[in-house]
Amino acid sequence: MRAETTAPGRGGRAPWKTSLDRARHHHSIESALMDALATRGVTGLAIFADGEVHRFDAPDKRQGNLAGWYVCPTPEVAIYGYWHTGEQQTVSLAGEHDPIAAEKARQDAERARRKRDAQRQRGHAQAAKRARRLWASAQPADHHHPYLRDKGAWPYNLRQQGEVLLVPLFCAGALVNLQRIHPDGGKRFMPRARLKGAASLVGRLAGASRVYLCEGWATAATLHEATTCPVVAAMTANNLATMGRVLRQRLPTGVAITVAADNDQHTEGNPGIAAGRAAAQEIHADLTWPCFPCIDCACSDFNDLARCRQGVAV
Q: Per CATH, is 199-314 categorized as 1.10.1200?
């Protein structure tokens, strides 16, 4: 197991900034956005003007950080920015010679953003209702379920519907999503359900002196068994920083937080450790990750480590 204590950040976030990048000599918003990103050191992206948010690596952070984002809400406008700084830029085909058209494009983009947000919120609400109905009709999970046997984990807060395990994800105390795990280990979240800012808890936060934050549920179960501390499973690397902020705001100041990152040793840029380090630095938490005794194995998390070492405590 590798661990480190993160140093405080550089005085907080950069202020939210917006600007308009003019694109004078482009016939498509894709090429205009590609050129604008290239001036910021972001190259090699395939641009999709489909109205969806796409992520990319910020050039000032480790590879695999996915801290940058862009969206093309209309054929004339693209917006990109960086979550870790709060910066946002707008690219328009209108150009400096037509400020009225540029302003109209900006307003169109804002209306499109509000429409997407409203659609997303409706989808979240509908998915949460489906999740609550499914959860209410499910039974306590069988500890002999093939996935649990394979992971060597106790079911804790899980339920089961037929052969499918249900992992509950909560946001602000409300059940908003379910991760469904099949006997073969296949995993799916509820369609259109909320994931960012939602998590699953193993153990109890009340009275804890230390809380662990990790990615997957099986990792959370393993860490809880090894430490008896409560563990929050953010479910994805991209959700670690968000849940870290939630925990820091919710927990008393004296409660320590340790980010237990996945060690994606065979993935370029090791996105597990990169995301874990970024989350730990932002909230001034401790950071740990597993180091494996096996050679050329597929291990990546603390559950893998526990099984690799035949149950020796992490």
A: no
